[in-house]
Amino acid sequence: MSHTILASSRIAVLGYGSQGRAHALNLRDSGLDVVVGLRKDGPSWHKAKAEGFRVAEPGEAVKTADLVAVLTPDMVQPALYTEAIAPNIKPGAALLFAHGFNIHFKQITPRQDIDVILVAPKGPGALVRSEYERGRGVPDIWAVYQDVSGQAEEKAIAYADGIGGTRAMLIKTDFKEETETDLFGEQAVLCGGASSLVQAGFETLVEAGYQPEIAYYEVFHELKLIVDLFYEGGVEKMLKYVSETAQYGDYVSGPRVIDAGVKERMQAVLKDIQDGTFAQNWIAEYRAGLPNYRRYKQADLDHPLEQVGRKLRARMTWLHPEPAPATGATDQEPAVA
Ligand code: NAD
Ligand code: MG
Fold first, then answer.
1. 16-63 pLDDT tens trace
2. Do residues 229 and 236 touch, judged by C-beta distance below 8 A?
3. Residue 141 CA from chain centroid, whole number
4. Which of 85, 203, 258, 288 is deepest in the core (most CB within 10 A)?
C-alpha cells in the first residue's frame, strides 16, 4: 500500500455530491479514517449518515483533520474557507482541491502554514466510485501549490491512491494548467462548443424545411455513436466504422465548418481564461444572483432542439429500462465538470 503517509491521518471530506461521495467511500474502503463535513441538515447530511459516515459541521470536521478535501461547488468555497477552514485547520495539515479555480484566481489565499494540493479525477464521481468497486480506478491529475510539511507531494499521491487513481494512472500538473485547461475544455469544446455546434446544425436543417424530428436524429442523437468511437479508439476508429461517403464528406466539409476563424475565436476564449477576464465575469455574475446565467439556461431549455428531443427521447425505451430501485444512491451529475 502506498498510502502509508495517510494511514494514521484523519481525512475531512467537505461536500458529499458527485466527487465528495465517491472520494469518501473509496478512501474509507482503502482503510482510511474519513469524516464528512456538511451543513447540519443540508441536502447531503442524511445521505452521508445513512451511508455510515461520521458527519460533522464543516468547522468541526476540519479541526480534527490532517487532510481537508474541499469538494463543495467551486463558488461556495471562498466563504467556506473563511468561515470553516481558515480558523480551524491544523498547522501542517493539507488542504486539497479537485479543481484549482479558487487558488489560481486568488479567491482563496491559503494560510502559510498548511500544504495546498490538488487531486482531480478525470471522470465524474459515479465512475470514480464504480471503477474503484471493480478493483480499478479513474486516472487522476495532481499538483502541489504550497508545501510546508515537505510531504505535500507524498500526501497528494497517497490521496490519489486512496481513491483508486494509482490503479489507473497519475499525471502531474500545476494549478494554473489544471484550471485553465479545464475551463477551456468545457467552454470551447465540450459543453459550449458541442452544444452550439449541434444547435447550429439543427437550425440549418430546420430552416431549410426539413422535419425537426429527422434533424434531431441526424445532428444530435447520432453524435453519441461518433463520440463513443472517438472514446474507444480515436478518430482512427471512427473513420474505420463510417462509410467511405461519410469519410469523404468529413474530409472536404469538416474544415469548411470548423475553419481557422473557429481556432482564432478559441484562442480569444483561452486568452479570457488566462488573463482572468472569464473568472472575474463569472464571479460577478454569481454575486449578482445569476441573472444572465438563468436567461442563457432558459434559452437552451426552450430551444426547438430540446422540445423535439423530449418528445423523441420519451419513445426511446432503452433510455428508461426498469424503474430504478430506491437506493437513494443515484447520482444526478454532469458528465464533465
Ligand atoms: P456537487 O455539486 O456534486 O456537490 C457539492 C456538495 O457540497 C454537496 O454535497 C452539497 O450539499 C455540498 N455543499 C454545498 N454547499 C456547501 C457548504 N457551504 N458547506 C458544506 N457543503 C456544501 O459538486 P461536485 O461536482 O462534486 O464538485 C466538487 C468539486 O470537484 C468542485 O471543485 C469541482 O470543480 C470538482 N470536480 C468535479 C468533477 C465532476 O465530475 N463533477 C470532476 C472533477 C472535479
Ligand atoms: Mg471542468
1. 999 999 999 999 999 999 999 999 988 899 999 999 999 999 999 999
2. no
3. 12
4. 85
Name the DSSP letter for residue 222: T
Ligand 1 pocket test: pick from 26, 72, 105 the residue with the most ligand atoms within 8 Å of its Cβ. Answer: 72
Catalytic residue among 3, 23, 46, 99: 99
| Centroid of ligand 2 to alpha carbon of 337 (angstroms) | 3
In this prediction the pTM is 0.92
User: Would you say how long the chain is, in residues?
Assistant: 337
Query: Going by C-beta distance under 8 Å and a sequence separation of 6 or more, which residues neighbour residue 104?
Result: 175, 176, 178, 179, 180
Q: How far is the CA of 301 from the centre of ligand 1 (A)?
A: 23
17 Cβ inside 6 Å of ligand 1: yes
**Mapping DSSP to helix (H, G, I), strand (E, B) and coil, where does residue 253 land?**
helix
Coil vs helix vs strand at 203: helix
Of 23-32, 209-218, 289-298, 313-322, the least confident: 313-322
Q: How confident is the model over 221-253, as pLDDT tens digits? A: 999 999 999 999 999 999 999 999 999 999 999
Q: Is the pLDDT of residue 299 over 50?
A: yes
Question: Would you state the cell numbers that stand for residue 214, as one nine-digit string?
Answer: 429527422
Question: Of the candidates 98, 96, 71, 94, which has an alpha carbon nearest to the alpha carbon of residue 16?
Answer: 71
> How many angstroms separate the CA atoms of 85 and 12, rounded?
11
The rounded distance, in Å, linking the Cα atoms of 45 and 48 is: 6
CA angle 44, 48, 54 (to 5 degrees): 130
pLDDT, one tens digit per residue, over 55-85 is: 999 999 999 999 999 999 999 999 999 999 9
Start-to-end CA distance of the chain, whole Å, equals 30
Identify each DSSP E strand in the chain by its residue range. Answer: 10-14, 33-37, 54-56, 67-70, 94-97, 115-121, 140-146, 170-172
Question: Where does residue 148 rank: exposed (0-12), middle (13-18), buried (19+ CB within 10 A)?
Answer: middle
| pLDDT band of 321, cuts 50, 70, 90 | confident
Closest listed residue to residue 192, CA positions, set 18, 336, 19: 336
